[in-house]
Design brief:
This protein is α+β, with helices and mostly antiparallel strands and 412 residues long. The protein folds into two domains: 256 residues, 3-Layer(bba) Sandwich (FAD/NAD(P)-binding domain), CATH 3.50.50.60; 142 residues, no CATH class. It contains 15 helices and 20 strands. A seven-stranded antiparallel sheet has the order 17-16-13-14-15-12-18. Strands 6-2-1-10-20 form a five-stranded parallel sheet, with helices on one face. Strands 3-5-4 form a three-stranded antiparallel sheet. Strand 14 and strand 15 form a beta hairpin. Helix 1 runs parallel beside helix 6. The radius of gyration is 24 Å and the shape is elongated. The protein starts with a strand and ends with a helix. Bound molecules: flavin-adenine dinucleotide.
């Protein structure tokens, strides 16, 4: 008898689970609430589709929090080099950028997604768009969907949930599954913004002048669990605060600071390529008739936005002595008061507690039900780590479900 596998969620995790299970000879039905699949994946393509990262695997695995064997093992089984080979097998060549990030040569998601869906159809995967999963009926083998034709009840021998996190909910993943899983007694850590911008109470004049301005060649740091976390990168000034890779990289630590004490301090080094001593030496030169702003621009090549930030933080009390001014340039404290809303975050932290799973991502208390992707409780910075974990856990759940179905058939 053919065993049926229902996969709910057609993002990268669900698609990879479908590819893996169907390649193992399992009949797969893939359901998604939206009219088309992979909408967030396509959005990620707008930023170039950073698929993975080429740093050494140990360093790569250290990016994931909480550090847990389950995620590490699934990535070790499908590491970045395999992701590159997989993309190439779909006709999409990748390259490693100067930052070690891995991108498709075309920097787009659409060609990869098209070719991927073609492969799935050829492998016999049946795709059911506009099918919103709304819960279980009697047991977790009976699924209830709302569809344009009305309610639908589907029975499956095994199920994989790949429902995503809760950022950009209009693309399909709205985190509605949290209640459905909590009702089943499954431990869920509430979804929160991750890789998100942070709020700063900018002065009205500052934001009128600098909204949308990129903040380039800076380093940011914050104290996290007694250690100083540092990252060099770029940010963007926005109405509500600060966004961009620099901030996303420190997001986990800033979020914990805010949760613990109501705010966090982001310390900016406005001149990361200049030593403190060199700055002091430059500042000791006579200023002549130059204004302080022009003096700093001329001696330190300080951009308008960096000057604007200095003034924003110190107002009229900007230090004058070379020593104190150098300290301010190397460690400018920005008070961040909150995270930006999850609707605009790149990803979400939180999700189903990893302790709830066996090693192939089956829920221990719901045999035959597997989960993968961003709905699990792991978090990572941008840099290709998110998609890598979604693809790797999708593959792990796909294999797990296929193995489980074959075992059940044999023992039945
Ligand atoms: C702007 C942006 C840029 C990004 N860029 C990158 C990047 O360059 N590199 C990177 O690594 N990551 C990036 N990400 C993150 C990455 O896209 C996500 O981590 C990834 O898509 C999550 O995959 P997933 O399969 O777990 O969930 P999703 O991609 O969110 O897919 C979940 C699917 O489940 C469906 N679904 C949800 N609930 C239901 C339901 N009740 N019934 C039926 N279907 C349902 C949704 O419609 C959706 O199709 C980016 C994210 C954003 C927002």
């Amino acid at each position: 008898m053919t065993q049926s596998l229902a996969i709910i969620g057609g993002g990268p995790a669900g698609l990879m689970a479908a590819e893996t299970a169907s390649a193992a000879g399992i009949q797969v039905d893939l359901f998604d609430a939206m009219p088309s699949l992979g909408r967030k994946f396509l959005l990620a393509g707008r930023g170039g589709l950073n698929l993975s990262h080429a740093e050494p695997l140990d360093a790569f695995l250290n990016r994931y929090k909480p550090s847990q064997d389950l995620i590490a093992d699934s990535i070790k089984a499908f590491p970045p080099s395999h992701i590159r080979a997989w993309a190439e097998s779909l006709g999409v060549k990748t390259f490693v950028g100067s930052s070690q990030r891995i991108f498709p040569e075309e920097m787009k998601a659409a060609p990869l997604l098209r070719s991927w869906l073609r492969r799935l159809r050829e492998q016999g995967v049946r795709i059911h768009a506009r099918h919103r999963w709304i819960g279980f009926d009697q047991s977790h083998h009976h699924l209830l969907f709302s569809t344009p034709e009305g309610p639908l009840r589907v029975t499956a021998d095994a199920i994989i949930l790949a429902l995503g996190g809760a950022s950009w909910p209009h693309l399909g993943s709205d985190g509605g599954w949290q209640i459905l899983m909590t009702e089943q007694g499954i431990g869920v850590h509430p979804l929160r913004s991750s890789n998100c911008g942070f709020k700063v109470d900018w002065d009205r004049h500052f934001i009128e002048r600098f909204e949308g301005t990129p903040l380039k060649a800076v380093a940011g740091s914050t104290v996290w669990q007694g250690n100083v976390l540092q990252h060099r990168g770029e940010g963007v000034i926005c109405q509500e605060g600060l966004e961009g890779g620099l901030i996303y990289a420190l997001a986990g630590a800033l979020r914990e600071g805010i949760e613990a004490q109501g705010h966090a301090i982001l310390t900016l080094d406005l001149l990361p390529d200049w030593s403190h001593e060199k700055i002091v030496m430059k500042l000791e030169a006579p200023r002549g008739k130059l204004s302080q702003k022009n003096f700093l621009r001329r001696t330190l090549r300080l951009s308008d936005i960096k000057w604007g930030l200095l003034k924003e933080v110190f107002k009229e009390k900007l230090p004058i002595s070379p020593e104190a001014l150098a300290n301010s340039l190397k460690a400018l404290p920005i008070v961040v008061t909150d995270m930006m809303a999850i609707e605009r975050a790149i990803s979400s932290a939180g999700g189903i507690d990893l302790e709830a799973f066996s090693k192939d991502l089956m829920l221990k208390r719901m045999p035959g039900l597997f989960c993968c992707g961003e709905m699990l409780d792991w978090d990572a910075p941008t840099g290709g780590y998110l998609l890598t974990a979604c693809l790797a856990t999708g593959r792990c759940a796909g294999f797990g479900a296929a193995r489980w179905l074959k075992t059940v058939t044999v023992s039945a």
